[in-house]
Amino acid sequence: MSRVNKRKSALDQISELTTNRLSVYLRCLQDLEAAGVQTVSSHALAERFRLNAAQIRKDLAYFGEFGVRGVGYYVRDLRRHLRQILGLDRQLRVGIIGAGNLGLALADYPGFRQEGFEIVALFDADHARVGQHSRGGVPIHPIADLRRITRRDRVAIAVIAVPVTAAQAVVDLAVSAGIRAILNFTPGALSAPAGVKLKSVDFTVSLESLSFHLAQEGG
Amino acid sequence: MSRVNKRKSALDQISELTTNRLSVYLRCLQDLEAAGVQTVSSHALAERFRLNAAQIRKDLAYFGEFGVRGVGYYVRDLRRHLRQILGLDRQLRVGIIGAGNLGLALADYPGFRQEGFEIVALFDADHARVGQHSRGGVPIHPIADLRRITRRDRVAIAVIAVPVTAAQAVVDLAVSAGIRAILNFTPGALSAPAGVKLKSVDFTVSLESLSFHLAQEGG
DNA sequence: TTTTGTGAACTAGTTCACAGCT
DNA sequence: AGCTGTGAACTAGTTCACAAAA
Fold first, then answer.
1. Distances from the Cα of A72 to the Cαs of A18, A33, A186, A202, in angstroms?
2. Among A62-66, B39-43, B47-51, B134-138, which is the least confidently predicted range?
3. Looking at the complex, does the CB of residue A112 fall below 8 Å from at least one CB of chain B?
């Protein structure tokens, strides 16, 4: 069994901390490539994020031996590898459920398109919104059409930006429409069946963490 | 020295993981109190988040002995304690820098006000936006007024929702205006001096984490 | 009896330090 | 000489398991 296969079999035990860092490395490599830099060492990368160089080498080594001893990593090569590892070598289509302020803002968020995600649809229960478009041109569909549009447009990722009370029902609906990856922006605990990856971003928790630190120092 | 003081001195070594969970517990307690529940055990709480009961007890025990053996925790009491620990017993004022789609959406995000944060000001470099208000009525100021408004309105927390290229300059400006806590929504590494708490929310990293999981399963 | 608070055991994640390749 | 890849050492975080309290 080849070294690559040995690694492949251990790939599901990669921690989320590692994959998050891979995203960060990738962004950095894109900057470096744009700046015409050919090679980069783990130390040079580490300095940018005040991270440990060994950590970067370990993160990368889970997936293969991408570096060259005495030289470092070829920026172009490593970037290509990371894009492939993160599944960004194919265009991933995203649907956003909830066309309120937040949903509309996310639909036109330039960072997504830039990294290769394509926001293809918004969904909303409010009939007044259906048929409209975001400023950037993403069409708003009735939520009843979620299953149909998801299949037609091959939506792979759902973003949840609805009021808290509707969130679990929307997750269930997305799952039943065949969605296997969900990014949730509503607060509170949601559950999804095994095999469906659910990731949550909770603004309130983040703000409260800041509040805690102010409370500690401020007395 | 009292037990409370002994703990107080160790308070700065509380991990972010713990404080994030405290926010989650607090939200749950608010629901329980609204539902008229008097007491709750660490096991009952743990089930809600499929978390470990010992973890919850440890998280709480950093700050005092809030529980009653054989009974559990008094919901009302614990809620009050958590609000105090997280610094939510006083109204915290927030300013949002960047009045684009995202900044405006955050300004009117109902979850913030609900937890006791007050969004008092938006700031933007674009003169066309200055003088306008968010739908919810938050006024948009020129960024040049950041220092003045921050002092006048006693803004404690800054939210960064500007384009990536402007982000570090905006952080520096906020710090020089006396801000000690910053919630950053732009991608990439920003730096702030010691004593200033900078927390980042990176949408792209979250989406790429989902992409990674799809790439692993999907083959 | 029930449930907390917490030391001890365990697990996960990070950093060190160096052999080995270029 | 320079830098990677990685076992070993270390640090942080979680879970177990039980004495002590109500």
1. 20, 15, 42, 37
2. B47-51
3. yes
Say how far B95 CA is from C13 C1', in Å: 36
Other CB atoms within 10 A of residue B194 CB: 5
- Residue A128 shares a structural domain with residue A157: yes
Task: State, as a whole number of angstroms, the distance between the CA of A52 and the C1' of C18.
Answer: 17
Does residue A198 form part of some domain? yes
pLDDT (tens digit, 9 = 90+) per residue, B103-125? 999 999 999 998 889 999 999 99
What's the mean pLDDT in B133-144?
A: 98
Adjacent-strand bridge partners of B91 = none
Nearest nucleotide (C1') to the CA of residue A68?
D4
For residue B191, being part of any structural domain is answered with yes
Contacts of B211 in chain A (CB under 8 A): 86-88, 92, 117, 157, 181
> What's the pTM?
0.94
In a domain, A22, yes or no: yes
**Residue B216 domain flag:** no
User: What total number of domains does chain B contain?
Assistant: 2
* B39, B145, B182 from B148: Cα distances, Å: 46, 5, 18
User: Where in the sequence is the domain holding B197, given as residue range(s)?
Assistant: 92-205
Q: What pLDDT was estimated at residue B10?
A: 58
Give me the torsion for CA of B4, B182, A203, A115, rounded to 10°: -140
DSSP class per residue in A37-106: --EE-HHHHHHHTT--HHHHHHHHHTT----BTTTBEEHHHHHHHHHHHTTTTSPEEEEEE--SHHHHHH
Q: Is the CB of B88 less than 8 angstroms away from the CB of A208?
A: yes
Residues of A in contact with B208 (CB under 8 A): 19, 22-23, 26, 86, 88, 115
For position B88, what pLDDT does the model report? 97
Of B residues 70-99, those with CB within 7 angstroms of nucleic strand D are 70-71
The answer to whether the Cβ–Cβ distance between B48 and A109 falls below 8 Å is no
Residue A11 has pLDDT above 70, yes or no: no
